[in-house]
Amino acid sequence: MFFSATTPPRMVTLVLLTALSVLSLNMFLPSLSNMAADFEIDYSLMTLSIAGYLGITAILMLVMGPLSDRFGRRPVLLVALIVFTLSSLVCALATDIWLFLIFRVCQGSIISGWALSLAVIRDTSPPQEAASKIGYVTMAMALAPMLGPMFGGLLDEFFGWRASFLAYTGFGVIALLLCWFDLGETNTARSETFAQQFRGYPDLIRSRRYWGYAVCQAFSTGSFYTFLAGAPLVAIALMGLTPAALGFYMGTITAGYMLGSFLSGRYARKYSLTTMMICGRIVANAGVLLALLLVFAGHLQVITLFGSLVFIGLGNGLTMPSCSAGLLSVRPTLAGSSAGMAGGLTIGGGAVLTSVTGALVTEETGAYGLLLMLLFCTVMSLLAAMTVRAIDMRESLADK
Fold first, then answer.
1. DSSP of 255-279, one letter per residue?
2. Taking the model in full, what pTM does it have?
3. Which of 9, 120, 127, 327 is most deeply packed, by most CB within 10 A?
4. Which residue has the higher pLDDT, 40 or 340?
5. How far apart are CA 248 and CA 28, in angstroms?
C-alpha cells in the first residue's frame, strides 16, 4: 500500500493547488484566435471555452463544498484532480470543437483546488490569521496568472495551441501526486449525514453579512474575468499585438495582485476585514477611472490600458484574502459549503460577465466597452464591501 498523508498540508501545496485552478483558466487565452482558426469556427463560439468552463465550475462549487464538509477535503480534491488530468489530455487530442468543449468543461473540476484550499486554511486558523495566510497564498499563486499567459503564448508560437493542454495534463499529474503524499485531512468536524449538515444551512443563507462578502468576492473576481474576455480582442484587433506579446501584457495585471496580496499578508492581522476590503475596492475603482480618462483623452496605448489596470490587480489583492476569510467565518462548521456557495456565485457571475463582455466588447466599442464593464464590476464590489461594514457597525452599536 502506497504512503498517503495524514497531517495538514504545507503552504506550498495549497499555493500550487490554487495556482493550477487559476492557470487552467488563462494559460491558453493567447491561443483563442488560433484555436478558432484551427477548428474553423467563429471567435465568439471559441469563447465558450471560457464561459462554459465558468458555468460548470459554478455548479461544481455548489457540490464540492458540501461534499468536503461531509466526506472531507482530501478525497474530494483527489477525485477532482483525476478528472482534470484526464480531461486535459482529451482536450489536447481533440479534433472536433464539441468534443473539445465538453472536456474543456470537465477541466472545471480543478476549481476545487481553489475553494478547498481556502477551507483547509480556515479549518486550521482563526479569521484574521486566515486572512493573513490567504494573503500570502494568493501573493505566491499570483505568479501563475502572470506567467501563465506568457507561457501559453510561447507554447502556441513554437508548438501550437495543443501544447498548452498537454502542459495541463502534466501539471495535473504532479498536483495529484503532491496531494496524495502531502495533503492530510483537516476537516475534523465532518457531519455524519447530509441531513445533519443541511440543518445548518438556513442560518448561513439568511446571513446578510455572508451575502455581502460573497457579492464583493463575485464582482471583484468578475472584473478579472471581464478583463480576460475582452482584452484579447482589444489588444489583437485594435493594437495589433501578437499572441506572445498579449500573453506578456495580460500577465502584468497580476503584478498588482501580487503586491496587494503581500500587503494583505502583512496587514490583515492588524486591521479589520472590512477595512482591508474597502481599501482594495477604492484602489480598483481608481485604476479603472484613470484608464477611462486616459482613453477618452485619446491616449489608447498598451501602457495606458494595461498599466492603469494593474490597479485592479492591486485592489483585488487587498480585498480578496479578507473577503474570503470573512465568508468562511460566518459559519465555521460549514466552511466548505460557504466556500462552495460563494464560489458558485463568483464563477457563475463570471460566466455571465464573460458572455456579456463578449457581446459588448467589439471592434466598434473597443476599449470603451471593456473599461465600462470593468467599472460596473468595481463599483458593485465597493457597494457590497460597504454593506458588510455597515452591518458590522450596526451590530457593534447594538452590543453597547
1. HHHHHHHHHHHHHTTTS-HHHHHHH
2. 0.72
3. 327
4. 40
5. 13
